[in-house]
């Protein structure tokens, strides 16, 4: 078992990663808004679709937005998991943590199970059979 101080440090690291992912997502959304505004202007002027879509690298921009969204989602997931672990270290029940987050006790338990598996792998104490890397939502 780890200490509350260690878990707090892990949570702070996760929060920093979430904040960085949030900033990257915000920048990407702003860039996409420029593209969407340009497309709207061309659409309003009656431009054909091939002209509208040829105005920029839409596919590359869309793929980048998807990548940044996925990074944000993973950072959010990891932060939730670290909150759960710290909450348990501080004595909160799985039920109470689930209530605070607004999701099921089962999902809260899956976050905690995932955290246990990650820590077990990091410590070299073996792994459970291969499965999902993240709990289902």
Description:
This protein has 137 residues and is mostly helical. It has one domain (4-123). 77% of the residues lie in helices and 0% in strands. The protein is built from 5 helices and no strands. The chain has helices at 4-44, 49-53, 58-89, 94-101, 105-123. The protein is elongated and about 60 Å long. The protein starts with a helix and ends in a 14-residue tail after the last helix.
Radius of gyration: 21 Å
The domain tally reads 1
Question: Which series of helices and strands comes N to C?
Answer: HHHHH
Q: Helix tally?
A: 5
What's the count of strands? 0
Any low-confidence stretches, pLDDT <50, length ≥5?
127-132
Q: Name the overall outline.
A: elongated
Helix and strand content put the structural class at: mainly alpha
Helix content: over 70%
**Average pLDDT score:** 89
Strand content range: under 5%
Layout: helices, strands, pairs:
Blueprint: H1 4-44, H2 49-53, H3 58-89, H4 94-101, H5 105-123
In short:
The protein is built from 5 helices and no strands. The protein is an all-alpha fold and 137 residues long. The radius of gyration is 21 Å and the shape is elongated.
Features:
mainly alpha, single chain, elongated, 5 helices
């Amino acid at each position: 078992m780890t200490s509350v101080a260690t878990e707090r440090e892990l949570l702070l690291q996760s929060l920093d990663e979430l904040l960085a992912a949030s900033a990257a997502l915000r920048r990407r959304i702003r860039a996409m808004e420029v593209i969407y505004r340009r497309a709207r202007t061309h659409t309003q002027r009656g431009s054909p679709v091939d002209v509208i879509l040829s105005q920029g690298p839409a596919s590359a921009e869309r793929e980048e937005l998807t990548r940044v969204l996925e990074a944000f989602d993973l950072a959010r997931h990891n932060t939730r998991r670290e909150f759960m672990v710290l909450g348990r270290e501080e004595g909160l029940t799985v039920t109470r943590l689930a209530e605070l987050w607004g999701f099921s006790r089962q999902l809260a338990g899956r976050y905690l199970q995932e955290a246990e598996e990650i820590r077990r792998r990091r410590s070299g104490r073996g792994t459970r059979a291969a499965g999902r890397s993240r709990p289902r939502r």
